[in-house]
Amino acid sequence: MDLVSDAISAVRVGRPSSTRLRVGGRWCARLDPYEGAGFHVVLEGGCWMLTEGGTALALNTGDAVLLPHGSGHVIADRPADTATLARAVDFAQWSRTAAANSGATAGDTELLCGKYRLDRRHTHPLLADLPDVVHIPNRAGRHDELRAAIDLLGREVGSARPGAAIALPSLLDLLLVYLVRAWMTDSTTSRWPAALHDPAVAAALHALHEDPARPWSNDTLAAQVGVSRATLARRFTALVGRAPMAYLTWWRLTRAAALLRTTPDALDSIARRVGYSTPYALSHAFSRQYGTTPGRYRAGAVAG
Fold first, then answer.
1. Which of 21, 55, 93, 168 has its CA 20 to 30 A from that of 260?
2. How far apart are CA 108 and CA 97, in angstroms?
3. Treating both helix axes as pointing N-terminal to C-terminal, what angle do 164-186 and 144-156 enclose, rounded to 10 degrees?
4. Does residue 93 register a pLDDT over 90?
């Protein structure tokens, strides 16, 4: 897989959830911090969002918002002043009421709201680099693939059409990828878009993700991407935030954790797949990074 796919797959757990709502009049809903990522898409009308940091954001038809760190926030029909915040109700309660009163009225706002479950204990640095709020305004000619995904989701959610049980989670996964892509295209402050546009660094990341089990060294990696060891170390560390071999160790253990969560594979098989010669070597390194043994980590993931 490519780096963005790997970054998402390594931390995603369970299935995403979503709700389509049509609301009118005065309304205000509160979403508490969440162990995952939240999103809102305005399918029709408009609303306001107030973040925990106090930033008020106007959302218009076609706008999409990703809250990649599960930050608490408020959504409302108008800018959230003190009086508005005082009447904010829990989102789950509010959404049930809104769903029960879903008849269309002129001037209503229609929203698609949802959550992705993520294991944040060792988030990939690309995702950690995302701001608390990623706002992608609806602008003509910008992020056409995201617009297409939003349109498909708007048709699919709540329709009970054949195959919806497969189509909807897949479209929600696609929405997350397109939101991250859009942020990477628009961002002027994150180092990760620069890392993926640097030929040597991007090639090195691709090589490490493509074959983490290979016995890499700084020399073999530099030779693979066609630059000197010193050049690769300097550019990779500046843009990724870790030296190449430190990143490789981190990625191997992150992949091991994902395999422990999602497969029944034996520890020796997982060790070989991520570049450790023995289960003991993997267990020792895993315990240092995760503070627990692979077996206990897997048991906790199953119990959760």
1. 168
2. 15
3. 150
4. no
Do 18 and 114 meet the contact criterion of CB atoms below 8 Å apart? yes
Query: Of 304, 292, 295, which is closest to residue 264 (Cα–Cα)?
Result: 295
Asked if 247 and 125 touch (Cβ cutoff 8 Å), the reply is: no
For the sheet containing 56-60, what is the strand order? 56-60, 46-51, 73-76, 28-31, 89-90
Selection from 137-141, 151-155, 197-201 with the highest mean pLDDT: 197-201
Q: How far is CA 9 from CA 4, 12, 34, 129, 218, in A?
A: 9, 5, 19, 16, 26
User: CA-based diameter of the chain, in Å?
Assistant: 66
Lowest mean pLDDT among 15-24, 158-167, 240-249, 255-264: 158-167
Mean pLDDT of 140-150: 88
Whether 262 contacts 299, CB under 8 Å: no
Q: Residue 19's pLDDT is what?
A: 87
pLDDT digits (tens, 9 = 90+) for 22-37: 898 889 999 999 888 9
Strands of 36-44's sheet in order across: 17-23, 109-117, 36-44, 64-67, 134-136
Among candidate residues 19, 31, 21, 34, the one with its CA nearest the CA of residue 89: 31
Residue 78 · residue 96 · CB < 8 Å: no
How big, in percent rounded to 5, are the helix, strand and coil portions of the chain? 50, 20, 30
Structure token pair of residue 132: 């608390």
Choose among 200, 252, 195: nearest CA to 222.
200
Residue that the structure tokens 């430190």 belong to: 246
Q: Which residues contact 295 (CB under 8 A, 6 or more apart)?
A: 267
- Is the distance from CB of 126 to CB of 7 less than 8 angstroms? yes
CA dist 289 and 73 (Å) reads: 32
Write the single-letter amino acid at 185: T
